[in-house]
Q: What sequence folds into this?
């Protein structure tokens, strides 16, 4: 697609239109130009999604961190240090996996500064993946918001939740968080330390405590290093 | 086509056009689902979630009425027409009320508690995509261009002056970022396919009207 200068002019005119900075003639011209160019709707939608995403980052208090950019490209020295840290992290990870019999510790409150919040639910469609998480560059508590999939979930029910890598035998998962309640928004919340996660597939098992029924959700965890560089 | 869209299609199939206004809720929901960006933009400038919803619903009714009366051709960009109508209503409302939104950061604090889980999931995915675009940019200055332009709605002229850019450099930053976001959204199924879904819905409305 060829670059068009109107990409920026179009959104700037929309912003000025909405903030009342266009006089009536210019506002009418903007509306007319949009009507004559049906493709503008999709392009303005793309611009508006940019604005919405940035606004959400600001609302969550994550914009400043995102503005700092990826830490791994700042300098070769930092990269070398990061490689060392990663090596130590992998060793720790391996050690930790062996230490708690395949399950990952969940908590009912954030133990570190809060990072991403992941909504996990059975989506209508064929995808087996119920949630996607991108690992933060710095250690954070990740909020898991899981929506029970059982047909008769009640707000007063108590649930247990566990998290494990998909290559872990479910019968060996020992770290289960119990007596969890459904929130007003329909989600059950738990937190996991991002240092305990690495890129891969994880299984969340949610079980109503008075029932044998269990919901299993697959989530994908991706490494921030997978993000392509701009230039 | 998503399940929601299929459901909507099934609901309106065979329904005479004069009864389509009764489907305005479904139509508005389909718009909100397929155009979350423009919907959020409307909320941001309305400064009030309920006001934004009311305005969007009014615009949907206006559009369906015009379609029904034949004063609006169904071959037109229906989604664009609805949003143009909504934004026009908002602009008129704000002028009448002399309402000014001076603090965009405060507006961004508008909680999305009322969003459905699916909408919230879609918003989460969009936010992750935007963060990846930010991370993919080569310099702090480029990231600042995006935030000033899209979030703070500063003018191109002011941004160029503040950051020492010429217009070509400014447009290049925006162009690259937009294309990267477009690809990311398409990769996670939030791009072109969603827009085509709405096209299918509008085509069906056309079929119903002229049948």
A:
């Amino acid at each position: 697609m060829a670059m068009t200068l109107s990409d920026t002019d179009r959104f700037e005119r929309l912003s000025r239109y909405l903030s009342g900075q266009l006089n009536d003639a210019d506002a009418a011209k903007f509306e007319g130009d949009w009507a004559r160019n049906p493709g503008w709707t999709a392009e303005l939608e793309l611009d508006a999604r940019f604005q919405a995403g940035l606004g959400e980052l600001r609302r969550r208090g994550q914009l400043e961190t995102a503005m700092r950019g990826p830490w791994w490209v700042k300098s070769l020295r930092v990269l070398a240090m990061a490689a060392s840290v990663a090596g130590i992290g992998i060793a720790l990870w391996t050690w930790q996996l062996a230490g708690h019999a395949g399950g990952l510790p969940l908590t009912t409150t954030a133990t570190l500064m809060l990072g991403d919040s992941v909504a996990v639910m059975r989506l209508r469609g064929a995808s087996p993946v119920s949630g996607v998480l991108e690992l933060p560059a710095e250690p954070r508590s990740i909020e898991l918001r899981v929506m029970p999939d059982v047909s008769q979930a009640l707000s007063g029910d108590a649930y247990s939740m566990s998290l494990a890598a998909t290559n872990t035998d479910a019968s060996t998962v020992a770290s289960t968080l119990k007596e969890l309640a459904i929130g007003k928004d329909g989600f059950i919340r738990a937190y996991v330390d991002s240092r305990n996660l690495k890129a891969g597939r994880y299984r969340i098992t949610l079980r109503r405590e008075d029932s044998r029924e269990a919901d299993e959700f697959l989530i994908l965890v991706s490494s921030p290093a997978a993000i392509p560089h701009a230039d | 086509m998503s399940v929601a869209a299929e459901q909507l299609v099934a609901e309106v199939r065979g329904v005479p056009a004069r009864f389509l206004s009764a489907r305005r809720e479904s139509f508005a929901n389909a718009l909100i689902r397929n155009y979350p960006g423009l919907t959020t933009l409307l909320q941001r400038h309305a400064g009030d979630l309920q006001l934004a919803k009311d305005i969007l619903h009014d615009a949907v009714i206006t559009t369906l009425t015009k379609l029904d009366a034949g004063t609006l051709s169904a071959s037109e960009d229906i989604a664009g027409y609805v949003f143009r109508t909504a934004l026009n209503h908002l602009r008129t409302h704000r002028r009448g009320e002399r309402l000014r939104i001076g603090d965009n950061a405060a507006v961004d604090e508008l909680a999305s508690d009322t969003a459905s889980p699916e909408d919230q999931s879609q918003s989460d995915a969009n936010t992750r995509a935007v963060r990846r675009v930010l991370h993919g940019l080569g310099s702090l200055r480029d990231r600042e261009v995006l935030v000033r332009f899209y979030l703070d709605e500063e003018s191109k002229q002011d941004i160029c002056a503040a950051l020492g850019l010429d217009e070509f450099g400014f447009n290049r930053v925006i162009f690259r970022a937009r294309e990267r976001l477009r690809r990311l959204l398409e990769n996670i199924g939030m791009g072109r396919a969603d827009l085509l879904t709405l096209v299918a819905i509008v085509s069906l409305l056309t079929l119903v009207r002229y049948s």
Observations:
- The beta strands of chain A are 103-104, 114-120, 129-134, 141-146, 158-165, 176-181, 188-193, 200-208, 214-222.
- Helices of chain A lie at 6-18, 24-36, 39-59, 63-68, 76-99.
- The mean pLDDT of chain A is 79.
- Chain A touches chain B through 67 residues (CB under 8 Å).
